[in-house]
Amino acid sequence: TFTITATAGSNGTISPSGATTVDYGSSQTYTVTPATGYHVASVLVDGTTATLTAGSYTFSNVTANHTIAVTFAIDTFTITATAGSNGSITPSGTTTVNYGGSQTYTVTPATGYHVDSLLVDGSPISGTSFTFSNVTANHTIAVTFAIDTFTITASAGANGTISPSGTTTVNYGTSRTYTV
User: Fold this and answer.
1) What's this model's pTM, rounded to 2 decimal places?
2) Which residue spans within 9-162 are E strands per DSSP?
3) 141-163 tens-digit pLDDT
């Protein structure tokens, strides 16, 4: 008989675990199961990297003692943040978030601008910040900005005119001339 010793790191299991006695020439299959939110990081059979097939490893025609050791790593996801001109989003670019983790984004328009649209995974939301909580998938967040506008209402009494008259929309920081 021979002994196969199976060990698993934290955040997953191998079955059977520990020392298993195997008769000469027989086979022994081990099933590896990561915990939710984790994946198999490595499998070492007799100290050499090995590959699982459908989550298991089989020792066939056993003629010596063996070891199998598995380790697990947390699943990670990416959140991609983009901002149009005249403002920013923090953090920007691609951020990696662990399974179940959170990430907060803050939007800051440039002076004279406001948030035109804020989209999370393509759906509009309101506000200038957003937190992805309990992350279990990849996400996107995108913001665009628009210039602030103001209205000038011009009117003239009897016996004179103002041009242009009525309501005029003016962009932040620009000028408008009126003739009286």
Assistant:
1) 0.82
2) 12-15, 18-22, 28-34, 38-45, 48-49, 56-59, 66-74, 76-83, 87-90, 93-98, 103-109, 113-120, 123-125, 129-132, 139-147, 149-154
3) 999 999 999 999 999 999 999 99
